[in-house]
User: Fold this.
Amino acid sequence: MEGLSPSLGGRVEEVRRSARLERARELLPRLLVLGLVAVLWALGVKQLFASAPTVEMPADLEARSDRALEAFAVDFARAYLSYDPARPQLFERWLSRYVPAGMDPDAGRLAPPKARGVLFAQVVQNQEALAGGRMVVVEAQLTTSSAPVYLAVPARRTEGEGLALAGYPAFVGAPSVDEEAALPLSEAVDAPELEQLAERVVTNYLARAHANLEADLAPEAEVAVPEASLRVERLADLTWAGEQASGAVLATVEARDQAGASYTLTYELGTDYRGGRPVVLWIETVPTST
Assistant:
């Protein structure tokens, strides 16, 4: 290079720079691709080791579906409302197993002078208690009165997930019933094939005619027929249970039992079309569902 003239040397240097620039331009797309692959790989590894998202049940819904807590409240109500002066120790021992430390041994109850039992008891309300836990209202029919009583039982889950009273119970009124309420409006079904299907299915369902009923059921349908049979006299009404796209209809029928009593009954039927004809997917309930 020492023998080159200054002008020639400058041109050679310019050619070298141009060559390096071209090689860089050629490598740039490849480098960008490699960089993108590295980023995607890093994100993939991060996602691989990241914990899977969890779907949590709303706390209030989970508490309201705590059947063990509700059963605990019903059992306590039975023990609290029952008594037999001929066997006081038995009933006191029955009640004491529900009483937590710090509460009167008899849960604050002064036993009645006469025997009293509980014919039936059931949960009618379950709502959050501001003091903690749940307020479970139990309806109980006593042997000593014609009208039921309603006992609000404060119950909770302990830190060890056990069941316990959260305080003394309280006698309360019945849940509110809106006597002015009207039936919700629904759209009439204008499809003769669905009307015929509904009347046929409910008739066979209430008559316990298994073979005839199965002819109108989808293969995957799960149905449990009533224990006592009824005779359908007519299909009184057929409306959509919601949007028509759901396929669910409400079939109202007039039926009579073997004793001669007459009933107006409404059944929700899930329907679908298979092979060009309508079939039923369920009748009122799915027996295997909770």
